[in-house]
Design goal:
Radius of gyration: 19 Å
Number of strands: 0
Order of helices and strands: HHH
Helix content: over 70%
Distance between the termini: 14 Å
Shape: rod-shaped
Structural class: mainly alpha
Strand content: under 5%
Largest sheet: none
Length: 78
Amino acid sequence: MENNYSYAEFLKAVGKNSSSMQAEKMLNDIYIDLFLSHIHREQTRTRLLEEIDAALDRNDKPTFMQLTDSLRTVDEKE
């Protein structure tokens, strides 16, 4: 799901195909990919926060440390 779109790539695609439909399709693909990535990140973050709370309730330090590292990794990708 991690597509690295660039403005330069977009301009190349538009330049090759003067069709506005092609440009619109590419933009739609970019927006959909960004939206899905955002939703996935938020759901992952919410799940990790819930699991961190449960680990704290159980006084499970190793699991807490692992989950907080995972959360940190998710937050760094933003």
